[in-house]
Amino acid sequence: MLTYLARRLVLAAITTFAITLVTFAILHLPPVDFVTAYAAQAAAQGTAISAAEADAMRLAYGLNQPLWVQYWKWLAMVASGEFGRSFEYGRPVTEVIGDRLWLTVLLSMGAIVVTWGLALPIGIYSAVRQYSLGDYVFTFLGFVGLAIPNFLLALIVMYFGLRLFGMSVGGLFSAEQQLAPWTWAKVVDLAQHLPVPILILSLAGTAQLVRIMRANLLDELRRPYVVTARARGLPERRVILKYPVRAALNPFASTIGYLLPFMVSGSVIISVVLSLPTVGPLLLRSLLSQDMLLASTIILLLGVLTVIGTLISDLLLMWIDPRIRLGQIR
Amino acid sequence: MSEAVISEPLVTEAETRVAVATQRQLIWWRFRKHRLALVSAVIVGLFYLVAVFADVLAYAPPFDTEAARSYIPPQPIYWFDADGHFHPHVYALKGKRDLRTFKLSYAPDPSEPRDLVLFAHGYPYSFLGLIPTDIHLFGVADGKPENALFLLGTDQLGRDLYSRLILATRTSLTIGLVGVALSLVLGVLLGGISGLQGGWVDTVIQRVIEILRSIPTIPLWMGLAAAVPASWSPQQVYFAITIIISLIGWTELARVVRGRFLALREEDFITAAVLAGASRLRIIFRHMVPSFLSHIIAAISLALPAMIISETTLSFLGLGLRPPAISWGVLLQDAQNLQTLGLAPWLLFAAVPVIVVILAFNFLGDGLRDAADPYG
After folding, report:
1. Of A97, A268, A274, A294, which to mutate for an interface test with B (greatest number of B Cβ within 10 Å)?
2. Cross-chain CB nearest to B355 (options A147, A168, A269)
3. Which DSSP string do the residues of A81-125 spell out, in sequence order?
4. What is the distance between the alpha carbons of residues B375 and A146, in angstroms, rounded to a whole number?
5. Residues B193, B196, B201, B204, Cα dihedral to 10°
6. Angle at B303 between CA A220 and CA A205, to 5 degrees
7. Residue A302 distance to chain B (closest CA, Å)
8. Model pLDDT for residues B257-280, shown as the tens digit of each residue
9. What does the alpha-carbon distance between residue B275 and residue B269 come to, in Å, rounded to a whole number?
10. Of B32, B78, B190, B248, which residue has the fewest beta carbons closer than 10 angstroms?
11. Which residue of B has its CA nearest to A108?
12. CA of B281, closest CA in chain A: separation in Å?
């Protein structure tokens, strides 16, 4: 168990390191450095920056140092929670991001909970009642869920929400709560707006998990121990839930590590379409305006949060799966 | 003198057929049973035909803008004339001034019918980049088709959605192919080395895959795609996007390949090749790859839709292919907000081919995966 834990921790550390490298690379990918971009922006606004001033800025930001020195300085800064200032907004990056990060986390976690909550009973139903009408309906829905990219689904839901019900599904808050400080009323407002985006986000994942669950459970249901349990007169519900479902859950549970990155990715996209106040639209905007410090901070934070989330799910898995606790799987 | 004893055959004819069938036949027989996969294969084939003959199937120049044609809803083809004879025609566009607002608006005018003909002359193009021609599968007899034929309506700039959709099919389907080809090379190479070598090499490659899979891909793609310089030509952007997409897409293929390699490594014919002194690359590509080619093909047809979704998503966000390039994602970008959707809901039609082709690829991949192991 300790080796499992140690391996996971080391892997998480390496992943975090890889993410910082990639983020730093993205920060430095644009062919023009940001002082040049800043000078161009200033010139466009009528306050030209002289070459000497630009050089002074480069010196101040350490842009003339070798890349690895810059990387270490940047890492030290980031580690102390100092992410720099956004170009476009002229405010500290952390301030610009604000609540958006937590709303992203809320959305992704919510989608995972819903994915599990839906996929588990549907998967069990589809396996136990194989080839029933319900099974076919869910299989069909599953394929549709897999085939529609979630930004398209968001677009379609938005369109029909407006056409058929005359309601706007965009945003996470009503207009009057948008800028209000956090109160109970705002929390209720958020809770009312969350279900639609969460459902959209969880459809593809649910479709995938239902298929895995169905296949696993079908394999288990054919095992002799199930026949034995029936022969001994156990009630059907107990026959299914007590052993086959638990056995089928194992590969199911190990996919949770890939579910979180998937959800975070999806949340970025559907947030853009549904204009949700998460980091998604902010990331897109900052990338389009080449506000790289803001963009790279968002990518870094999303990556690190995903690593933490995956680590937590690994710990959960360890708690659920006795084989890991006993050190049979490493 | 010995008498030959003619015994009854122990196996039926069907079983003999299976016993002597080649691997390829077995796969085909198994695949044939999967009706949905068969239909999907036909659909995918049709889509690629559209990609090849895109310019022939389109009737309006995909880039020409014309304010007069802005946001024209889809117009039906009228198959019969007033006398009930078969006589397909459409109506030409005509401006009408609103007498209250004095605004000039354009709409098809029933008093000006235009005949629909096959193999009509239209905008010039070169077929497959080789043969310059202006023949299109269908068009209008006299006058420009783009001023009369609106199968799926037009966008804000007055470009015909049907023609653009047909040409977008070419871009979106080929970008998937190129992307898969690239990730296939990476996947087979790294997965192969991982499975064949084992030991610490395997560990390192597996950890790299694990790390790549635990990073949220979309933000990463967005970051990389945003770094593509705005000054690049559409072709350069196309290749940059393909590389970005395949950089992360190879992990699943590598996983499949590694699994097959691990299984094959213990086979006698591989040991024989090693003993005969064949080089590693020769063993991989000459002996191992052919024996799990069918698995690779199945994995490819499951990887293709993922590539297509990635391209569509990036382009939709404005970070992938950029106009003047046309892809499904670029077309859907026009349908991004509610105002436009309220005004021109037909723009959402670009979603239909995306969904159909992804579904078809998924069913096809499922069928191929089942068929890849005909003994299983």
Report:
1. A268
2. A147
3. T---B-TTT-SBHHHHHTTHHHHHHHHHHHHHHHHHHHHHHHHHH
4. 29
5. 70
6. 50
7. 8
8. 888 778 787 788 888 988 998 888
9. 10
10. B32
11. B216
12. 30
Give the nearest chain B residue to A275 (CA atoms).
Answer: B337
Q: In chain A, which among 75-134 make CB contacts under 8 A with chain B?
A: none
Query: What are the φ and ψ backbone dihedral angles of B87, each rounded to 5 degrees?
Result: -165, 75
Query: E strands within chain A?
Result: none
The pTM for the full model equals 0.80
In this structure, the number of other CB atoms found within 10 A of the CB of residue B65 comes to 13
Query: Cα separation of B327 and B179, whole Å?
Result: 15
Yes or no, beta carbons of B227 and A146 under 8 Å apart: no
Give A234-274 pLDDT, tens digit per residue: 888 888 888 888 878 776 666 666 788 888 888 888 888 88
Which has the higher per-residue pLDDT, B68 or B35? B35
- Residue B9 to residues A43, B5, B14, B15, Cα–Cα distance (Å): 93, 12, 12, 11
Is the CB of A303 less than 8 angstroms away from the CB of B218? no
* Cα B20 off chain centre by: 36
**What residues of chain A score a pLDDT lower than 50?**
330
Please identify among residues 274-303 of chain A the ones whose CB lies closer than 8 Å to any CB of chain B: 283-284, 287-288, 290, 295-296, 298-299, 302-303
Share of chain B above pLDDT 70, in %: 94
- Helices B234-265 and B199-213 meet at what angle, rounded to 10? 130
What HEC string does B256-312 produce? Answer: HHHHHHHHHHCCHHHHHHHHCCCCHHHHHHHHHHHHCHHHHHHHHHHHHHHHHHHHH
Residue type, B256: V
Query: Over the Cα atoms of chain A, what is R_g?
Result: 25
Written as one letter, the residue type at A136 is Y
Rounded CA separation B144/B139 (Å): 8
> How many Å apart are CA A135 and CA A301, to the nearest integer?
40
Quote the minimal CA–CA distance from B342 to chain A in Å. 8
Tokens 């490594």 belong to B265
For B351, nearest residue in chain A (alpha carbons): A152
AA letter at B52: V
Q: Average pLDDT over chain A, rounded to whole?
A: 81
> Is B335's Cβ below 8 Å from some Cβ in A?
yes
Of B213, B229, B362, the CB nearest to A146: B362
Of residues B11, B27, B31, B7, the one with CA closest to residue B19: B11
In CATH terms, the superfamily for domain B40-51+164-371 is MetI-like (1.10.3720.10)
Show the tokens assigned to A38. Answer: 């800043």
Q: Cβ distance B312 to B329 under 8 Å?
A: yes
With a threshold of 0.85, tell me whether the complex ipTM lies above it: no
CB pairs under 8 A between A and B: 131
- Give span(s): CATH 1.10.3720.10, chain B: 40-51+164-371
Neighboring chain B residues of A299 at a CB cutoff of 8 Å: 219-220, 223
Report residue A189: phi and psi, to 5°: -60, -45
A306 close contact with B: CB closer than 8 A? yes
